Amino acid sequence: MFTGIVQAKGRITGIERNDFGARLSVDGHGWPDPSVYRPALGDSICVSGVCLTVVETKGGVLAFDVIAETLAKTNLGELKQGDAVNLEPPVTANQPLGGHFMQGHVDGVGEVTQVLAGEDEHRVTVTPPADLMAYIIPKGSVAIDGISLTIAEVTKDSFQVALIPTTLDLTTLGDTAFGRRVNLEADIISKTVVHQLERLRGGMPGDADAGLTMQLLRDAGFM
User: Fold this and answer.
1) Which regions of the chain does DSSP assign to beta strands (E)?
2) pTM beyond 0.85
3) pLDDT digits (tens, 9 = 90+) for 143-185
4) Residue ranges of domains in the chain, CATH in brackets
């Protein structure tokens, strides 16, 4: 489990393709305080929104085995040596929950369709896969490349987030440009509610005839 509060920005030092996918090596020297947490063999690390297992540590470099399905369904398959990635260790029971609950399971890859960088604010618009829009709500939470963000605005087919200077400085979103593909994980609470309502309705999220009815709300116990 993660919270979307990025702890370090790493760099890809190597991508070794193999029969099952690839071995991804990341320079992990950026951890702010090794005395508090030092990645170890078998640990789960959120790498730009994807939960991966540490299979090797050597000289501050972390190695992860990434299967072909993960490479195909996230933007990790598009990375090259030298690219930056966001890193977060798993949350523990004694940590403050600064972001929102994340699993590190990417729901889809979206595309940055607008970047507004002004003196008073920095906003990024993302167009997600159409079936994810059911989980995107104004002032709700979303993870972009593993970063917990509040949704500032929602349109029919896209959403916008407002970024503070700290996020721009400490994560990969500071280098985000038009056309960039980003990993998206919708809020688990939003997904659970939508799926439960659709199950009661007898459909699936994203169905053309999906919608709330008074009877559905009664069946769900809201009335």
Assistant:
1) 8-17, 21-27, 44-47, 50-58, 61-67, 84-88, 108-117, 122-127, 141-144, 147-154, 159-163, 181-186
2) yes
3) 999 999 999 999 999 999 999 999 999 999 999 999 999 999 9
4) 8-88 (2.40.30.20), 112-188 (2.40.30.20), 190-219 (no CATH)
